[in-house]
Amino acid sequence: MADNRFTIDVLRKSSDGILTFRNGNIDISTTCWWDPDVVIDAGSYVGYATRMANKADGTDGGKREAIWLGKGVPYNSGAGKSNGIFIHKGTGPSWSDGCIVLRSELVFQMWTSIQPKETANIVVNVSDETVRRGVVVPYRCNVADWF
After folding, report:
1. Residue 93, preceding bond cis, omega within 30 degrees?
2. For position 46, which CATH number holds?
3. Could you tell me the pTM of the whole model?
4. Which among 24, 20, 54, 19 has a CA at the least distance from the CA of 34?
5. Residue pLDDT tens, the chain, 147 long
6. Of 49, 87, 112, 117, whose CB has the highest number of CB atoms within 10 Å?
7. Long-range interactions of 53-58: CB distance < 8 A, separation 24+
């Protein structure tokens, strides 16, 4: 039997973003945050449902539940790479050292639904919102044309 594949999409806006995840009857679309000084580069990453070895504040009393984005995740437009980028619980940017954070109960709901654990079975897509304003003027506009 093949492993299930899961997708997490993160659309970043100016100071926060929207994380979406769907699996069975779970449908999450919620605000997420990150450290504005350590911003992972937009792209697709292979994720693993795991626990953070250095955080002992998990919802179930164990280590903190998280989605690990793998080794060598580039940040700050390629200025550095990190092996410690996660999606984990948090209430704002202050909870992040480069990670993507969202409300605890939603992380736990997402993490619990992903099986098996410790497997490269998640695609995390990180993109930046692009804003297009106005219209393209298909001709040369001269002030003299207005009168």
Report:
1. no
2. 2.40.440
3. 0.86
4. 19
5. 345 799 999 999 988 999 999 999 999 999 999 999 999 999 999 999 999 999 999 999 999 999 999 999 999 999 999 999 999 999 999 999 999 999 999 999 999 999 999 999 999 999 999 876 666 656 555 555 555
6. 87
7. 55/88
